[in-house]
Specification:
2 domains, six-stranded mixed β-sheet, 25% strand, binds adenosine-5'-triphosphate
Length: 307
């Protein structure tokens, strides 16, 4: 549905690029995750897609049409749900929805239908008459989402939609994202939370310093890497064994009682356990397998997602 082609964006001529050649291909009816540390360029990309900022270099097409033309033909089809709360605290939930549906220019009947659908989608019927400013954090997030849905969009741009919510509301929001995509909608989902991305996204792009470091399916990212081995021993590796292993596994790293191998073939596992046993070294913990998304992310960006 969306083709993003070599986007470059600078806030000021002399500043480093916020986006530096970003290309992505986002399919209809999917949830696409955008993962990156603070300042990676996620919000900038979303702002360009939402039409809040003009394109500088590179292109965005939707169904083969340039973004500006597509937006002109479908003015309410792209909805941005921003990181910050974007509603009026002194209005009720229902009044907020009605207001935001109204500014998008829908006639009265359609406005009512869209608001009812958005209210039901976010399960906010019971609090429709409450002032938005009096809602809990989780309900505020749901109102933010519902407002995004008042235009009955095809494409939902969600910028960190679960920040500051309790686990139950987080679960609700993630399910809502999946329901939206299952009904044919497309979602671009930015998050710092690896578990969320793993729970809802079909594809993911890891972005840092304005560049896409890796993009693809979650399965490809998680299982594409070589299996690593990490052992926690009851005592430091005996020097004779360490010298032998260094010859056989040049990438081996040791620190106190930990031994780690960035790549380790499964058929070499049994022999090293026998060798440890022969030296009377017990293994207290073992981790073996391809890196998970968090580890892939850290390897690529050299920082944790929560930095
Ligand atoms: P976060 O997770 O913190 O929201 P992000 O991945 O969304 O980060 P952006 O907000 O897109 O990152 O920022 C990308 C880069 O552009 C950063 O270096 C940031 O400092 C810079 N930037 C963002 N907004 C502006 C602005 N209005 N003026 C100047 N520079 C900006």
């Amino acid at each position: 549905m969306i083709q993003i082609d070599r986007l470059h964006y600078r806030y000021r001529a002399a500043s480093p690029p916020a986006l530096d050649g970003v290309s992505l291909d986002i399919g209809r009816g999917s949830v696409y995750g955008l993962l990156g540390p603070n300042g990676a360029g996620k919000t900038t990309l979303i702002s360009l897609l939402a039409g809040l900022r003009p394109l500088q270099e590179g292109g965005i097409t939707l169904d083969g049409e340039p973004l500006a033309l597509w937006r002109a033909a479908h003015p309410t089809a792209i909805a941005l749900v921003p990181q910050d709360y974007a509603f009026y605290s002194m209005l009720t939930v229902a009044e907020n929805l009605d207001f935001f549906a109204g500014v998008q220019g829908f006639p009265r009947r359609q406005r009512r239908e869209h608001c009812a659908a958005a209210l039901a989608f976010a399960c906010l019927e019971a609090v429709a008459g409450r002032l938005a400013g009096e809602l809990s954090g989780g309900l505020r997030r749901r109102l933010n989402l519902a407002i995004g849905l008042t235009g009955a969009p095809d494409l939902l741009l969600l910028d960190e939609p679960t920040v500051g919510v309790d686990p139950q509301s987080r679960r609700f929001l993630l399910d809502a994202v999946k329901r939206f995509a299952a009904a044919g909608g497309t979602v671009l989902y930015t998050s710092h939370y690896m578990e969320e991305v793993e729970a809802v996204c079909d594809k993911v792009a890891i972005i840092d310093d304005g560049k896409v470091l890796l993009a693809g399916t979650l399965a490809g990212m998680k299982y594409g890497g070589a299996a690593a081995l990490r052992l926690e021993l009851a005592r430091p590796l005996p020097e004779a064994l360490a010298a032998d292993w260094r010859g056989r596994f040049p990438e081996m790293e040791t620190a106190k009682t930990t031994v780690a191998f960035p790549e380790f073939a499964a058929d070499a596992l049994a022999p090293i356990f026998s060798e440890l046993a022969a030296f009377g070294v017990a293994v207290e913990q073992m981790e073996y397998g391809a890196p998970n998304l968090e580890q892939v992310f850290m390897q690529l960006t050299r920082h944790s997602l929560r930095d």
